[in-house]
Structure formats: structure tokens, C-alpha cells
Amino acid sequence: MLYWDYAAATPPYEDVVKTMEQIMKLHYANPSSLHRAGSEAAKLIRRSREVCAAALAVQPKEILFTSGATESNNLAIKGAALQYQSRGRHLITTEIEHPSVYESCLQLQRNGWEITFVAPDSTGMIDPERVAAAVRRDTVLVSVMHVNNEIGTVQPLKEIGSLIKSANSRTLFHVDGVQGFGKLAVDLKGWKADLYSLSPHKIRGPRGAGLLYIKEGIQLFPLLSGGSHEEGQRAGTENVPAIVASSKAVRMSGEQRETFYARVLPLRDRLLRFLHSVPEFVINSREDGAPHIVHFSYPGMKGEVFARKLEELGMAVSTRSACSSRLAEPSRVLLSMGKDVSVASGGIRISFGDSHTEEDVAALEKALITAVRALKIAEGGMK
Q: Above pLDDT 90, what percent of the chain?
């Protein structure tokens, strides 16, 4: 089985697995305990914070550890809204955000906040001017993802961040960086980002840990009450093994970013050329999108049906975000781009990893053709 779902989850680095196993065996003490074992665990967390901060070119005290990017996104959005509601109760995001951002905003909307959802163009690109035009005096926060997790569009964050701050210097800018880190350059200061979410298990790290950059001077309303962990902004005993292993994955994927890009981009470009040659397919990804994501549709064919046929042929693919892939309705992202329902219901996402080769892509191309022929024959038989 060839695995083409790296945007959903990645196999951890062997060093990450070894590190996590070692920490679980040797450093099981609670980092808040006063004895030596607790102090040693706390020291590991401090070092992990330093490693992640160095990878993002920020200060260690600006790094907060969570249970994953979903929690990071929820804390960034709801924590900012609740902390700064004296400034206003208006937030801005886009129609194509990950469910952890989109649903967080809908939840706030149901509780009295006003949310502006900015629509993308037909390629999934967000116009910075449209974002800026929506900023008001009472806008607390704007949240825009770096790379769309479904179609791979890369958003112009530097322009967006600059225009947001020009429109209202007090408006916070949150970036969901889950699909960008380790694949594309990250420039938090250049983007004028105040908050940034990261998911280690998307970059060959473990599940169970996440990261949220919080610019110095910003305070978030804690969503979890209890102890004074993470400077009082996120209660709960720290997951030391996952945090240490995550910091290793952050360091390694950051260091290998350029190598990853150089290896994967030609494979993506080859697949795009092939897909353009198949008349049954509609390409949903931009040519200048992220190097690891290709999304296309087979109009009139449910994406789930096509994905199952590909799995029978030895190819593990997805239809959209793993958090939404089991939903029966058409893709919210594709519909917001103006795609019709047949296209939005027939999407397939291919996401590359650093282990893929030209031979793997050739095998995938063969499977795609075989799947199309088999499904057309089956469809003809049913008629």
C-alpha cells in the first residue's frame, strides 16, 4: 500500500520514536513536582521550548505547548476573543479555514460575536484587500491559514498582515501554520503574526502535542482551568515525552525544509501534468501551490467511492481534511471557490512525503487510470 495522505498524518522520524520511548521510560515524573525527578522533567520542557523557539526565530517564553493544533487554534481564537472582548466582539476569518478554526468562529458567533467570513477566489486565494476592508475598530482578531489543508493554496500572509495592522494596529493576527511549516519558509515577524499554530504529527512528530506561538505582551483567556502550567494560559500536566519528541520533529523538519521542497516539488509537478491529461479530472490546486498537496475532482463520482477504488489498487488517498473526510456533504472549501456540487463532491487529495519517488508517482498514475476505467464500466453496467 502506497500512502498518499501526509497532509493528514505522517510517519514519525525514527529518532522521534526513540526519543519518545526514552523519555517515557526515564522521565515520567510530573514537571511540577519539587523533587529532582520533577526538576529534570521541567528542564526537558524548557529545552524543548528553546528548540521550537529557535526554529521559529522567536523567544522561548513565546512558545506554549498544547495537546495539538486543534487546541492551539481554539485557544488562539476563543482565548483572544474572550480576553479582549472589551475592544469589541468582531472577528474575521475565511470560508476555507480548517474546521478547528471555522467551527471555533461559528461557536463564538452562536454566542454573540460577529464573524466576517472572507470568500476566496476561484483558485482558493484570499485577497488581502478584502481582508483589510473587513477590519473595523472593534475587530479583535483575524485568522488566516498559511497553506490550505485541502487544496494547498498558499496565502499572501505578508500582505494580509501588513494591511490588517495598517487598518487597526490593535487587531491580532493568527496564522494556522499546520500545513506550511517544514514545507515553506515561515516569517512570523514579516507576517506581523501575533499567534501561530503548529502540529507536530504533520511533520513526522507524535500525536498528543501541539504548539502555539503567542507574541510577547499578548495574554489569552485560558480555555482549561486548573494549575498554573504554561504561564497560567493552559492548565494541565505537561505531556513531557510528546513535547520533547515534538521539539525534535520541529527541529528536524525545519532543517530539512529546503531538501524536502527540492525533492517533492518535481513529483507534484509531474502528477499535475498527468492529471491535466485525463479528461475526466478537474484540477482544484493552483500550479504555484504548496509542494506537497495536489487536489482534483472526478465530477459526478463521489470522492469516497473513487478513494475506495484506489485503495483496492494499493493507493491510500483522502478526499479532504481528515477532520472532515467522513462527512457525506460536498467540500465546503470547493463550494466557497465557486465549484459546482458535482466537483465539490468528487474531490481527491494527494499529499506527498519525503519518501515518495518517481516510481511511486508512476504507480499512482497507473492506478488512477485503472480506477477511472473500472468505475466507468461499473457505471455503464448500472445504467
A: 89
* Non-local CB neighbours of 221 within 8 Å, separated by 6+ positions: 78, 79, 80, 81, 82, 83
What is the rounded CA–CA span in Å between residue 229 and residue 335?
Answer: 41
- b/e code 184-199 from CB counts within 10 Å (16+ = b): bebebeebbbbbbbbb
Provide the β-strand partners of residue 351.
5, 293
In this structure, the strands spanning 63-66 and 90-94 are unpaired
Tell me how far the alpha carbon of residue 221 is from its chain's centroid: 23
Catalytic residues: 323
pLDDT value for 32: 83
For residue 174, list its beta bridge partners. Answer: 143, 195
Which residues, 6+ apart, have CB-to-CB distance to 290 below 8 Å?
147, 152, 153, 154, 179, 180, 183, 184
181: pLDDT strictly greater than 70: yes
pLDDT score of 325 = 47
Length of the chain: 383
State the average pLDDT over residues 67-86. 97
Inter-residue contact 361 to 352 (CB < 8 Å): no
Q: 208 near 221, Cβ under 8 Å?
A: no
Kindly state the average pLDDT of the residues 141-153: 98
CA 136, 138, 140 angle in degrees (round to 5)? 100
Rounded Cα distance between 197 and 59, Å, is 15
Q: What is the distance between the alpha carbons of residues 171 and 50, in angstroms, rounded to a whole number? A: 28
Residue at grid coordinates 476505467:
373
**CA 77 to CA 74: how far, in whole Å?**
5
Cα separation, 37 vs 39, in Å, equals 5
Indicate the residue type of 279. Answer: P
* Cell 510517519 belongs to residue: 11
The whole-angstrom separation of Cα 320 and Cα 352 is 14
Give the type of residue at 191. Answer: W
User: Are 134 and 103 a contacting pair, CB within 8 Å?
Assistant: no
Question: What pLDDT sits at residue 383?
Answer: 46
Antiparallel, parallel or unpaired: β 90-94 and 114-118:
parallel
Predicted TM-score (pTM) of the model is 0.94
Task: Pick the closest to residue 336 from 121, 147, 146 (CA basis).
Answer: 121
Mean pLDDT value across residues 33-49: 93
